[in-house]
Amino acid sequence: MEHQLSQVQSLLDLYALESGLSVLLTNDRGEWLTRPSGAIVPPNSETGALRAGIESHLQQLIQVFSSVRNGIVCDISPGVRLFMAPARPNKRQTYYLWAGCLVDERAASRTQGQATPGQAHFPWSEAWPSVRQNSAADTEKALAQTGRLAAIAEGLLEQEYVQESHFRRTELLRRLTTGGGAFGEWVAAMAETVDEADFVGFAAKTEGQRFVIREYAGPAAEALQGLSFSLGEGFVGQVATARKAAFWDYVAQDPRTFVFTGRGLYPTSLFCVPVMRERELAGVLFGGSVTEPSIGRETQSFVQTFAANWTMGITLEAVRADRDTNFTRLSTFVETCGSINHAQDAKRLSYILVDMSLNLVEGPFSCVVLKQSDHKVQLVSRGLAQQQAERYVKEVAARWSKPDGGAAGLEAELCEQPGMPPVLECPLYYQNELLGVWCIALKHAGQFALYRDYMIIVAQAGASVIYGLWEKGKVGRGDAVQLLNRALGYWDSYAHEMTHEAQELALPFARSLKLPDSEIKHIGEACLIYPYSPAFLTGLLPSPEQMEIIGDFHAITRLLEEGKARGSAPAFGVGGQLIALIYFYLQFNRDLQALDQLWAVTPELRTAFRSFCDSREVVESEIVIGGEEAAASRDNSASDLPDIRNLKDLPPLSAREREVLGQVLQGKSNREIAEQLIISEHTVKNHMTNIFQKLGVTDRAQAIAMVYKAGWNR
């Protein structure tokens, strides 16, 4: 602003020199922004009592004439005139240009600057020799010149404020994109940044599709806090329904403003913009003016940009929160699995589960009920009194048992009872045997969906260890692999899908290389857990062969992804190279040519993989392009496969699921189906699970019966 004030000072000096008047620019408190031009005060008197007296007198005049829009004449004493003209470089600030003094010729000869009784003395008389006497005809001319001078000064200062406004708005948008900060901070920053907005608020979405003003900056703040709107109600409710920004001009007489005017806010223009959080409406940002009848296009554009950046910031915060939450859960999962794997007895393991769930969920209690016999259970709990625990355990035992002693179900359930918090009850199952129930009290029922899948995974890990501790069987390496793969599906569905695609390619390719069966098994299992880092898997996998394969895979991918120069790569095992080869093949959208970049994989293995993929492609091509004769031959060869595509009474199944179900109708096992369809047995199991869920059945016999019922006849 110093540069613009320097220009204004030069302008005032020139005007004072030409007109003989003294000129001064002040703020709305009468404080000098420029040094006085001309001779209204003696030289070197810009400080001290004289300046303080002038500023005090000007402040009094401003208080009297603050509402004026144009220049006026102030009679500071009989016959002595001072000219004042406002300069408004922006909506929120008003400066005042003063010019004078002009003294009436008759007043000059008789008053010599004496003040009227009761009127504050204006210290102009100290500069009396320099004050110009005039005729009344000069007054209008001086007033017009003062007004024009104020307009020029306003234009010069406005450039600075435009630049400053752009800077403040840009800075605010930059801060928004980094995320963080409470809603109230952003509302206050918006109100401070947008000069045209006399008020800004945020109506947050609450339960029941209502929007409540949680944050507000502007007049009538106390009355507006807590004001609520329903969908479609008033300006805010309309935008909440449409989820589209809207701007209204000249709304002073609009009936929709009554909700504001009834609480002391009288808007003349208004804006409302939706603010989203991950595709869900978080609330409505609103604001406007109580003086300006319309909102400028530049302000409209900024408001929409602000809302868009705020939405991005909120979404970014949500993503970060989800990431941090998932990282916390993953870390907790690793620590818990490591702890339960080293548990010496079931009681100690139960305490691990209880303490982990209490720390993670922060509910009022957690307990583990272990089945000792049909009539006896063991309880480990925290947060439950003895009598309450005994009563609750009996209810749990009744819910999770059938009269024949069998299991009541395989999935976690939400238990809600009067006088009790909602409880996530997670069965501890292993090999179709119910070993116990893990019960986690929640703060609210909404946490059930948040923690259900995670707790099921941990419960499976716990159940497998309990089973081993009770010497009812040995826990195999495959259990840990399957558990880690299922956990991966919970945190990263894309990576989980990629592991199964990799396994479906790796197993037949490894067989084509005539690798030993034990090595093929290690490679197949490693495919399911390759996204995990070796450091993460240390201590979780009992097989050193798997750890070596995973370590080689990550070393190869690190070499390639870091763009290291082609050179002599360290010697890696076949398993690690094979998985790296398939991983990049899938990443390159199955482009065989791209495999030339994988210099860390031996040329022999790359050539063998190309031949393997070509052989699979040739078979598919023979089927597709064989012509009518080949098509007929194909149809005849497949005539033994049950055709259930036209059964309208069956629930919708995918093409692959219908193919698997057709194999089931032929009486084939999962392994036989896997070999027939050239997929892994695990993938067959996944298809069977999906088929059972869609058909609403629990086993193959029920599925076959439903197909017959739908109209299929062998």
Layout of helices and strands, plus pairs?
Blueprint: H1 2-19, E1 22-26, H2 49-65, E2 72-77, E3 80-90, E4 93-104, H3 105-110, E5 132-134, H4 137-177, H5 183-193, E6 199-206, E7 210-217, H6 221-224, E8 228-230, H7 234-242, E9 246-248, H8 258-261, E10 269-277, E11 280-289, H9 297-341, H10 346-361, E12 366-373, E13 376-382, H11 386-399, E14 413-415, E15 423-430, E16 433-441, H12 447-469, H13 477-491, H14 493-512, H15 517-529, H16 534-537, H17 544-561, H18 574-587, H19 603-624, H20 627-637, H21 655-665, H22 670-677, H23 681-695, H24 700-709
Parallel strand pairs: 4-5
Antiparallel strand pairs: 1-4, 2-3, 3-4, 6-7, 6-11, 7-8, 9-10, 10-11, 12-13, 12-16, 14-15, 15-16
Helix pairs in contact: 1-4, 4-5, 4-9, 9-10, 9-12, 10-12, 12-13, 13-14, 13-15, 14-15, 14-18, 15-17, 15-18, 17-18, 21-23, 22-23
What does this structure look like?
Helix 4 runs antiparallel to helix 5 (183-193), helix 13 crosses helix 14 (493-512) and helix 15 crosses helix 18 (574-587). The protein folds into five domains: 2-163, Dynein light chain 2a, cytoplasmic (Beta-Lactamase, 2-Layer Sandwich), CATH 3.30.450; 178-320, 2-Layer Sandwich (Beta-Lactamase), CATH 3.30.450.40; 344-475, GAF domain (Beta-Lactamase); 480-628; 640-709, Winged helix-like DNA-binding domain superfamily/Winged helix DNA-binding domain (Arc Repressor Mutant, subunit A, Orthogonal Bundle). With 714 residues, it is an alpha+beta fold. The protein has a six-stranded antiparallel β-sheet, sandwiched between helices. Strands 1, 2, 3, 4 and 5 form a five-stranded mixed β-sheet that branches. It contains 24 helices and 16 strands. The radius of gyration is 41 Å and the shape is elongated.
